[in-house]
Amino acid sequence: MTASTKSVSPATIPLNEQDLQEQRWLERLVGPEWARLIKGVLTNPLSVTGLVIILGFILIAAFAPIIVPPPNATWDTTLIPRDGFGPEPKAPGSEWVRNAPGEIPFWYTPLTGREEWVHLWGTASGQYDIFYGVIWGSRTALMIGGIVVLSSAIIGIFVGSLAGYYGGWVDEILMRVVEVFIAFPFLVGALILASILVPKLGRSIWPASIALIVFGWTGYARLLRGDILATKERDYVQAAQAAGANDFHLILRHILPNAIFPTLVVLSLDMGAIVLSFAALSFLGIGVQEGYTDWGQIVSFARSYIFSLDRYWFIIVYPGLALLLYGLGWNLVGDALRDILDPKLRGKR
Amino acid sequence: MSQTNTASNGTPSSQDSITEVKPLIEVRNLKKHFPIRRGVLQRQVGAVQAVDGVSFNIIKGETLGLVGESGCGKSTTGRTILQLLSPTDGDVYLNGHSLTEMGRSELRKQRRRMQMIFQDPYSSLNPRMTVGNIIGEPLLIHNIGNAASRRERVQELLKLVGLNPYFINRYPHEFSGGQRQRIGVARALATNPSFIVADEPISALDVSIQAQVVNLLDDLKSELELTYLFIAHDLSMVRYISDRVAVMYLGRIVELSERDEVYDHPLHPYTQALLSAIPIPDPFKEEKRQRIILEGDVPSPANPPTGCRFHPRCGYATDVCRVEDPEFRNLGTENKPHMAACHHAEKFV
Ligand SMILES: Nc1ncnc2c1ncn2[C@@H]1O[C@H](COP(=O)(O)OP(=O)(O)OP(=O)(O)O)[C@@H](O)[C@H]1O
Ligand code: SF4
Ligand SMILES: [Mg+2]
């Protein structure tokens, strides 16, 4: 080290005491961009509402065994208990004769005034309890959202990064592949693939999830590729390259962290939207098996009663409300994120 | 363009001096063309000849000023020398080692010896990294020292560039343009490089701050024995700091000599025009100053004029200028070379 520590020109920044004392702990912890996002989301009434809704579903999912315990300890909790096999839906408040939840939880009697389990929200045809299905369905919703959105995003981020960073023939090939998938309308593609997969994999969450991932990652890839292209031209990327950084370092430390924010917005919007798409597939009968704790699947019971919904409204209202609220929660957060990141886009879609 | 002896490349001849003056950087017939692609098939339909055959040396410890209008290829020259852009043709030697023929990992190792300072102090610092991490990154990349010693070194560098070491944990957005440029300088100095390309380091700054940053660079140069390629778009900016000055026009170097030679006896009509545009502080002289107005726009580097590239705008152009590319030749003496690329340069000697 030939440099001495003496400063060659006078320190140009006077210390501003007040400025120094200001505690910006959040920024110190997560960096300025994240701090701005977190602060923004937490100070916007709409996104706070969204967060409360999402948190509500997380709590419901976590405490499902306390809200409606399964009939017995060995019960597969993803299956809605059936109170017989009759085709006629039973109205809310009717007696729960068979396969009632094992014990009466602490909240039940004070809130409902009953000593015995009843079908709080009625049953669907086949005597599936709607309350159980909606409560435990929040686990399915969060899981589907997590699996499908995270898998699509990871694949999309990987492909988009490679295409955007390397450009040339790598980009050419990857983007051709993306175009092949985009040529199909999303739901139609997913529908066809899911119905091909059902006979192979059996009825479970997997055929629809895989189909949604296969047709969902391309959006992330395209979006991120564009943002990577723009970010990689920034001088700080050149500076790191000039300093001797390799590709891996450049992408992970400089390009991705600065290009990822629009992807986060879409990710959050998709968390809600994917559950709706999944429900649509379920509704068409290409999702989980009958009786699975899935909102879309419960709504699909209403298919046989399209013309008597005035009597059997509860089949569609309770799971439908759950779907709607869940989608709304993620949407509110996603919208707020987008407004924070790009105020010019406010109010647009 | 095949001059390879030192004299014809504008550096003082070493024959009669006792200690041989070895160039730190040798640039030989360097070319960088950007392909222009059109149509669905992205076929190449032409090339932007951003840099089209430049040769010069930079001697250890000197500052070479590189001047020219916007778009003439100065940044591309700087970036291609540092191998941030891969050259289309030609060679660059650092201390006699060819950078163009070096393997990727060897080149990354050599990068600690050559660094870059960028024009835009806003896009040259990663907004998501603290000042400490930005300045320390080159040390991290080259595995120099441990976390504690790197931090110490960063504080030392902050002092060196006139910033308070207290700011090590701050983010770039908390600083002004001039301060940010100092951070960029500190980063460039981190690995103790011998050669620095300063690409218009002051053009984006307030006039009041420009002098401070130039002084800083000048001080650092003598203190740390640095060698600069100092890029600027007007001659007045480089006069103070440069030992020699190269004037660039449309991808070529048209004049190169010692600073005072270029300013007092410009041999190329383009240099004369650039000089005539600088106001003279003396009001009497200023009144008599003859401005040579450059007519027409800068031609496109994708389709440069035939013969002398300057001929459409040159007041001295003759028939030979329109067809024959002028040789870049020495019109000075062996010991004090004065290079110029003009058929009629003798007129101005
Ligand atoms: N990545 C690129 N792709 C295509 N063309 C480019 C690229 N980079 C630069 N060019 C073109 O090359 C020419 C020289 O650009 P360069 O940035 O080197 O000019 P410059 O002298 O630094 O100008 P300025 O003073 O504006 O910085 C310009 O015509 C520019 O449009
Ligand atoms: S060669 Fe001719 S056109 Fe070119 S600068 Fe000289 S006089 Fe002008
Ligand atoms: Mg430039």
Question: Can you describe what's shown?
Answer:
The complex is a heterodimer of chains A (349) and B (349). With 349 residues, chain A is mainly alpha-helical. Chain A contains 15 helices and 4 strands. Chain A is elongated, with a radius of gyration of 26 Å. The termini of chain A are far apart. Chain B has 349 residues and is α/β, with parallel strands linked by helices. Chain B has a single domain (6-123, 196-202, 220-348), classed as Rossmann fold (3-Layer(aba) Sandwich). In chain B, strand 4 and strand 5 (97-98) form a beta hairpin. The interface between A and B is large, with 36 and 57 residues. Bound molecules: adenosine-5'-triphosphate, iron/sulfur cluster and magnesium ion.
Provide a concise account of the structure shown.
The complex is a heterodimer of chains A (349) and B (349). With 349 residues, chain A is mainly α.
**What are the segments of chain B in which pLDDT stays under 50 over at least 5 consecutive residues?**
1-18
The CATH topology name of the domain at 43-64 and 128-345 in chain A reads: MetI-like fold
- Portion of residues within helices of chain A: 55-70%
Q: Shape of chain B from CA axes?
A: globular
Which two chains form the greatest contact, residue counts included?
Answer: A-B, 36 and 57 residues
- Oligomeric category: heterodimer
Radius of gyration of chain B: 21 Å
Please give the CATH class of the domain at 43-64 and 128-345 in chain A: Mainly Alpha
Let me know the number of strands of chain A: 4
List keywords for this structure.
heterodimer, A: 349 residues, mainly alpha, MetI-like fold, two-stranded antiparallel sheet, 4 strands, disordered N terminus, B: 349 residues, alpha/beta, binds adenosine-5'-triphosphate, binds magnesium ion
